[in-house]
Amino acid sequence: xxxxxxxxxxxxxxxxxxxxxxxxxxxxxxxxxxxxxxxxxxxxxxxxxxxxxxxxxxxxxxxxxxxxxxxxxxx
Length: 75
Fold this sequence. Notes:
Layout: H1 2-11, E1 43-45, E2 52-54, H2 55-74
Antiparallel strand pairs: 1-2
Protein name: Putative transposase DNA-binding domain-containing protein
Domain Cas12f1-like TNB: 1-63
GO molecular function: DNA binding
């Protein structure tokens, strides 16, 4: 899947940034606190900062944040 995605991105003039997916749904995208939850829990609620959203949206925000940090470290 990574190879295919990379191929398609490059053919469209885009770039793929690989990030470590570990804890992306557990880490609060607002304050970076790790909030343990089972897969059955579909909403991220951070007791530290009060941030709440769908756990998949939270994970996507963390993945984006990690990719941007990686690109900034390369530049």
